[in-house]
Amino acid sequence: MGIFLGYNIASMEERLQKILAHAGLGSRRACEELISAGRVRVNGQIAALGSKADPTKDKIEFDGRTIAAAEPLVYIALHKPRGVLSTVSSPEARQTVRDLVLVPGHLYPVGRLDVDSEGLVLLTNDGDLTNRLTHPRYGHEKEYRVLVAQHPDDEQLQTWRRGVVLEDGYQTAPAQVRSESLAGKGAWLRVIMREGRKRQIREIGSRLGLPVVKIIRVRISNLTLGSLKPRQWRYLTPQEIAALKGKTDRTTKAIQNTSRIIRSVDKRSGTSKSAKRRPRPIKKGRKP
To answer: Where are the domains of the chain?
Structure first.
């Protein structure tokens, strides 16, 4: 079975690692390692780092599997509920975010959101965008609503803002933290951060004496959760995609053309019952 290639620009030669990244095989750096390891062939020949290819003409293989050309890039915003894994598969047969989005192709969640948390998850087959949103050097913001079990005092909030030394000795980067509202004995906080270590918010709360009850991610960079309810998802607009990529109006027009292709594919495959409507209706995931 071929690997879907999210490649939607005019026929031309490109760096092989860029083509592989568009195919959803990882970031360009990770794809360079695949090439260096001899796992990629172009027209039957083992590729070398620096090789170029035309995905519409050349036969490109990864571990013996042919990469099929001309599949559009897909970008989906999902409201992940609690109890669902932010992965595409689970050895324990637990429900994953991929189970909630019934569209064809190879889609992968961008960034971490632990099983006990909920909120915005971006799924895409765009390896370049995945790298842009997850690599520390870009420093994209992630915004959360956090319910803690106690009312925080000014000292606790100031400590969180400056950075907290975690159990393994790592000191967190400065963050924006403010109290939003009281909720009985607890309080809702608004937390904006540019890093995302595993269970970082929960560990910070624990070390500050503010046990975390609930976490909802509401924003990744410029992309917001909006009115999506748990298990609901939608396609990103061309403007949202271009903003995530930091691109120009010309790129937005190209993305609009690609979006028309995606809607056409959905209509033929039956994944969208109203592909031509504006605005696009919210999609609901499969119930467990």
So the answer is: 3-71, 75-135+224-284, 141-220
Catalytic residue numbers read 114
**Distance from C-alpha of 78 to C-alpha of 236, rounded to nearest angstrom:** 10
**Taken in order 75, 81, 86, 87, is the CA torsion positive or negative?**
negative
Question: Do 74 and 107 contact (CB within 8 A), yes or no?
Answer: yes
Cβ-contact 82, 118 below 8 angstroms: yes
Q: What is residue 211's predicted lDDT score, i.e. its pLDDT? A: 98
Residue 36: predicted pLDDT? 95
Give helix 28-36 / helix 127-134 axis angle, nearest 10°: 120
Q: What percent of the chain has pLDDT over 90?
A: 60
- The model's pTM is 0.68
Query: Is the distance from CB of 23 to CB of 5 less than 8 angstroms?
Result: yes
Q: Residue 6 pairs with which residues in a beta bridge?
A: 71
For residue range 218-239, list pLDDT tens digits in order.
999 999 999 999 999 999 999 9
Whole-angstrom distance, CA of residue 154 vs CA of residue 5: 51
Q: Looking at the predicted structure, is the pLDDT value of residue 26 above 90?
A: no
- C-beta atoms surrounding 168 within 10 Å: 7
Collapsing DSSP to helix, strand or coil, 275 comes out as coil
The residue type at 59: K
Structure confidence at residue 70 (pLDDT):
47
- Return the higher-pLDDT residue of 220 and 131: 220
Rg (CA), the chain: 21
Q: CATH 3.30.70.580: does it fit domain 75-135+224-284?
A: yes
Return the CATH fold of 141-220. Answer: Alpha-Beta Plaits (3.30.70)
CATH fold, domain 3-71, is: 3.10.290
The answer to whether the 3-71 and 141-220 domains have the same CATH topology is: no
pLDDT at 280 over 50: no
